[in-house]
Design brief:
Helix content is 75%, strand content 0%. The longest helix has 53 residues, at 5-57. It is built from one helix and no strands. The protein is mostly helical. The protein has one helix at 5-57. The chain has a domain at 29-55.
């Protein structure tokens, strides 16, 4: 191994590491954004589920499910 190639190889490794760090940061941002979105969506699903439950308990007798309805 010649001495000239060692600095070049070190620079190539450092450049690759810099690119990998950048990609890691980009992917990490995407994961964080998706986690926030999942939390918001889960809250919304819970709210809709609660609203549905309330409507089901408030159902009047003339709004009962037909006999062929299978839960």
């Amino acid at each position: 191994m010649s001495e000239d190639s060692l600095p070049e190889r070190l620079m190539a490794v450092e450049a690759s590491l810099a690119h990998l760090e950048r990609h890691f940061d980009d992917l990490n941002s995407v994961v964080i954004d998706q986690a926030r979105l999942l939390v918001r969506l889960q809250k919304r699903v819970d709210e809709l589920g609660q609203a549905f439950d309330v409507r089901e308990t408030e159902r009047s007798p003339h709004q009962e499910k037909p006999p062929h309805y299978a839960p």
